[in-house]
Amino acid sequence: MTKQTADFNQKQVKRDPDIAAAEIALRRAAAKAREKAKQASSGIMVWKDGKVVEERQ
Asked: What is the pTM of this model?
């Protein structure tokens, strides 16, 4: 998590529970995708510094 994200989260007093649950589900899906890519000896595409790059583990 970046400092900007942390600051944004601290400013939010109330969060829509559906949005919070969606964020958790997306993080869980991303972790599963990374694990599957690792098992297949391949990478995944991610958005980093304004570019799409392949992330390998």
From this structure: 0.60
